[in-house]
Amino acid sequence: MATEGSETNKATQWDITSKIAANLDRHLVFPLLEFLQTRGIYPEEDIMNSKIELLKNTNMVDFAMDIYRQSHNTEEVPAEMTERRKVVIANLKNLQETAAPIVDFLLDENKVKDLRNDKAYNLKMLQDQYNISQDDIEVLFKFAKFQFECGNYSACGDFLVQYRGLCTKLEQSFSALWGKFASEILLQHWNEALEDLNKLQEYIDSKSFSSALAQLQQRIWLIHWSLFVFFNQENGMNFLVDMLMQDRYVNAIQTGAPHMLRYLAAAVIINKKRRNVLKELIKLIKSERYIYSDPVTEFIVCLFVDYDFEGAQVKLKECETVLANDYFLTACVDDFVENARLFIFETYCRIHETIDMKMLATKLNMDQESAEKWIANLIRNARLNAKIDSQQGTVVMGSQHPCIYEQIVEKTKSLTARTYHLSHAVIGSSGRHQ
Question: Do 281 and 270 form a contact (C-beta atoms < 8 A)?
Answer without folding.
Answer: no
